[in-house]
Protein 1
Amino acid sequence: MIKLFKIVAFLEGISLLVLFSNMLVVKQMNLDLYKSLLFPVGMAHGLLFLAYIALATMFKIEQNWDFKKYFIICIASVLPFGTFYIEKRYLAEL
């Protein structure tokens, strides 16, 4: 199960970066490409975000994490490169 959480954390981080690059870079280039990418990339990121939070909650209960660790792991999902840090710092010990 930890392997699944690591995969979801990695994919969630990638999807966040793709979503940001789509909105910040492609949109500024005045291409209509960002409009066609917004829904599928946003939907994928949303589903991966929900899976990440659900798995983090399951691991909080299973591993008996304290609230501070759980809070840091959840907040990292909204920061660019945050899930990559969590994967190396917190999930490597599991």
Protein 2
Amino acid sequence: MTSPGAAVGLAECGERADAVLLWPLLGHPEGRVRAGAVAGLRMLDVVDVERLRPLLDDPEPGVVREVTRALLPSAGALPLETLTDRLAPGRPRQARVAAFRLLWARGGVVALRAAVALLDDPDDRLRTWAGQSVQRWHAGRGVVRGDAEVGELLDRARHLCSDYVLKRRKWAAGLRA
């Protein structure tokens, strides 16, 4: 039997060529071993987006958490619709958290759209995190000035900030307040 720490230990002491020993562990029946394998692959810097993406639906939260960490630098390469679908309230919490983290990493209107989508989430912590994210959001890279969707999203989150802040956010996005 493989111990959960063996994959991470191999990555800490090994080199990129050792990844061939970790890939088969992604199918291990024990979640902790799968999570360790993903962490090891990330540490060896041999992340393959297409091979790891199916593990975003793993039933073990620890596996989903490690896959999310591994995929964050490649968040822009993941299909937008697939991630957005994972924000649905019927999805497991770990899937919603992973989708939110990956969408937020993309920035711009995608991040704002994801945060606003979770403002009514049944999970208190996720709902609070989404609200705080909306409050931190600023128009920047990837936001088309005058994008009406940005105005609609900010209006949906109106209850999270003062009228002054809302007006400033809209102005920064090239919208009339």
